[in-house]
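F.,

This is the one I mentioned.
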């Protein structure tokens, strides 16, 4: 799905995004944005990661996590991509 590790293993790469995934008003760190940009090259992978059991177990709120690409000012983010019950802004 994500071109390598299973989707439940990839969220560990998003560790720098924990605070950004918890607070929708926070500014993601540059390392978070870099990782999200890399994973975000595949919208389906980005969704799988943000909605994974591993992410939820880490306390990541999917409804906040899906706003990280926008907060990172990703020009090529998948706007309007349906991510489970959520839509990427």
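My design for it:
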């Amino acid at each position: 799905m994500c071109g390598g590790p299973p989707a439940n293993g990839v969220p560990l790469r998003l560790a720098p995004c924990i605070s950004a995934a918890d607070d929708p008003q926070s500014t993601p760190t540059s390392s978070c944005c870099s990782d999200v940009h890399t994973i975000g090259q595949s919208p389906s992978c980005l969704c799988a990661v943000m909605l994974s059991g591993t992410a939820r177990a880490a306390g990541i709120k999917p409804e906040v996590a899906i706003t990280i690409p926008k907060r990172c000012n990703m020009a090529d983010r998948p706007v309007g991509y349906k991510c489970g019950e959520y839509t990427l802004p």
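The two ends are 22 Å apart (CA to CA).

Talk soon.
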